[in-house]
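Reviewer 2 asked us to include a model.

Predict the structure of this chain.
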Amino acid sequence: MKKLVFVLSGIGLIAGCALAYLSALTQPPLPPAFPPATNPYPNGIYANGILESDQSSGANTNLYPEVAGTVKRIPVSEGQQVKAGAILLELDDSIQRATVEQLQSQAQAALSLLEELKAQPRKETLEIAEAQVVAAEASWKTAHDELEKQQAAYNLDPKSISREALDSAANAFAGAAANLAVAKKQCDLTRAGAWIYDIHNQERQYTALWNSSRSAEALLSKYTVRAPKDGVILAVNPTLGSFVSAQGAYDTYTQGMAPVIVLGSPGSRLNVRCYIDEILVPRLPDHSKIKAEMSVRGSGVKVALEFVRIQPFVSPKIELSDQRLERVDVRVLPVIFRIPKSRDLNLYPGQLVDVYIGQ
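Predicted model (structure tokens):
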């Protein structure tokens, strides 16, 4: 039994020593997957950079619809070259289109009534009024002649007719005269046409309805998103049937709102937008002496850059992280460089790169 204990103790001691030896061994580090970015300048400034299409000012164009609705048609695809005014996206406009048609019909009805007022008097209506004057004159003439006969007979012999008959003839003549005066005034009113105030009121109603139809038609055009300039489609975020608004389209992966269309400038040229920490801004060389080299992450590719411009506005350092709620104390200065044309580079807008700036 004692021998067994000694044997087991010896085995345990040997195992512990072997384990301690193996634990003390250091493994050589794995080689990097790609060479890290190195500073090619003696006093170079490091900056994070993001690729974007070549723009004369600003960055890539983010397009948002001015109205909310369901996507009905997307006639373009990513990577496609488009001309200014080309249709990029259409929303369902059935309700707004019906509203436009209704307002246009109301405006046309108001215009027809206005033209009717301006066309007065109607020839047939005036003829009727003139005929009524002629009939009233005939009635007046008949009543006048009857009154003169009755009056002449009464003057010759008061007993030849009754006083009541003479009064009736006089009353009939007075009624005929009144009817003639009314017929003449009615004819004058018909001949005068529509009242000027009615015409002005109808003109205002037509103008108001016409302006409403034009406003509705202008709103209808907002249901179609068009290219504001020549460019290339970099991203189409919504799909058919998805709902978009003035805030953009909901991105399933980022769970945030994104522009419905991202439009870049035409051509194959790309820019690099670098963000220089404010504490490094005083170290920037003179604009005429600025040089820069870009390192593409994941590869050993290094590209000399052409200086384009400095965007003279220092802003919070949130452009690369895109965290709107992030509290940032560091501010950065955007500096834009251009990538020379090359068929060997496989680069895309939105790609992050490392940039060193020197002189």
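Residues 60-90+223-265 form a domain with the OB fold (Dihydrolipoamide Acetyltransferase, E2P) fold (CATH 2.40.50.100). The chain has three domains: 33-54+267-359, 60-90+223-265, 121-193. We have added this to the supplementary material.
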